[in-house]
Design brief:
There is one protein chain. The chain has helices at residues 13-22, 33-48, 51-60, 76-82, 85-95, 232-241; strands at residues 24-27, 99-109, 116-119, 134-140, 150-153, 179-181, 188-193, 198-201, 211-220. The longest helix is centred in the first third of the chain and has 16 residues, at 33-48. The protein is globular, with a radius of gyration of 18 Å. It contains 6 helices and 9 strands.
Length: 265
C-alpha cells in the first residue's frame, strides 16, 4: 500500500519552513537507542572487514572491481534504517508521498582525519528541474561534540545553481552566515537539502573519539536521477528482495527513477 500522509506529524510547520528557507533541519533523537546500538557494530564490521574499502574501489574503478561482497543495506540494522518509519514520515512531509532511495554510505571516522571541504551533494535529474528535491539524511549515531568535530552549513546556499565543488577551494574555512552544528545528542539526524553547501570540520585537538556516521539520500520522483554507484541496480534489487520497504513505499526502490550510470562528477 502507498505511504499515507495521515497520522501524527514528525515535522511541524516551523520545521518545514526552516527546511525550505535554510536547507537543513536537525531532528534530535530520531533514531531509537535500540536501533543505534545495532548500527554501531555494523559500521565497525563495514570498516574493519574492508567492506567499505571494497565499495569505494568498486565505485572508483568498476571495470576492475566488481560489486562489494556485501552491500550496506544487507546489514540488518542498515536496511532497517533506510525505511525507518519516523524518517519516512519526515521525508514525506518534505517531498510528498513519492520518493526514491538514492544511495547509502556509512563510516567510522577516526580521530585525526582531516575535514572535508565545502561542497554540496545534489545529483542532476534528466529534466534539469531544480524544484525536485534530493534530501540527505545524516545520521550521527554517537552525536556530535568537540571531540569528534563539527558540521557547518551555509543556510540558503541550496538556492544557488552551481556545481558541487564550487567552494572546494575554500577548504573548511569559516564563511559569513554559516551555522556550526557541534552539539548533538546520540541518535540525531540532520536532514539536508542535498544542494546545501556544507563542510565537515575536524576536532580542534586532543585525543578525540570516533564519529559513527550513516548517510542516506532520497529523491523526489518526477524525473530520472543520476546514480552515483555503478552497482545501483543490484542495490535496488537487493532492497526489494529483502522487502526493506515493508510493502508501504512502492517507489522507494524502483529503478525507473534513474538514468544510466556514467560515472561521478
Amino acid at each position: 500500500m502507498p505511504l499515507s500522509l495521515e497520522g501524527p506529524e514528525v515535522l511541524d510547520a516551523a520545521g518545514r519552513q526552516q527546511f525550505a528557507e535554510s536547507g537543513y533541519l536537525v531532528l534530535p533523537g530520531l533514531l531509537p537507542e535500540a536501533l543505534r546500538h545495532r548500527l554501531v557494530p555494523e559500521v565497525d564490521r563495514w570498516v574493519d572487514e574492508g567492506l567499505r574499502a571494497r565499495s569505494i574501489a568498486a565505485c572508483a574503478d568498476p571495470a576492475t572491481h566488481g560489486p562489494p561482497p556485501v552491500l550496506e543495506l544487507e546489514l540488518p540494522a542498515h536496511g532497517e534504517l533506510l525505511a525507518h518509519r519516523p524518517l519516512m514520515r519526515a521525508l514525506a512531509e518534505l517531498m510528498g508521498p513519492s520518493f526514491v532511495f538514492h544511495h547509502l554510505h556509512s563510516d567510522r571516522q577516526n580521530p585525526g582525519i582531516p575535514g572535508k571541504p565545502w561542497h554540496h551533494d545534489c545529483e542532476p535529474n534528466d529534466r534539469a528541474d531544480p524544484s525536485l528535491l534530493m534530501v540527505h539524511a545524516l545520521h550521527y549515531l554517537g552525536g556530535l561534540d568537540r571531540t569528534v568535530g563539527s558540521l557547518a552549513v551555509l543556510p540558503g546556499s541550496h538556492r544557488r545553481s552551481v556545481g558541487k565543488t564550487a567552494l572546494v577551494h575554500l577548504g573548511t574555512a569559516e564563511l559569513p552566515g554559516e551555522v556550526v552544528i557541534d552539539r548533538l545528542p546520540a541518535g540525531t539526524t540532520v536532514l539536508l537539502n542535498s544542494a546545501l553547501f556544507h563542510t565537515r570540520r575536524p576536532a580542534p585537538g586532543g585525543p578525540g573519539r570516533p564519529r559513527y556516521f550513516v548517510d542516506a539520500s532520497y529523491c523526489q520522483v518526477g524525473a530520472r536521477w543520476r546514480p552515483v554507484k555503478p552497482f545501483w541496480r543490484q542495490m535496488l534489487t537487493r532492497a526489494r528482495e529483502l522487502d526493506l520497504d515493508d510493502g508501504r513505499w512502492p517507489e522507494l526502490f524502483a529503478e525507473r527513477h534513474f538514468t544510466e550510470y556514467t560515472g561521478t562528477a
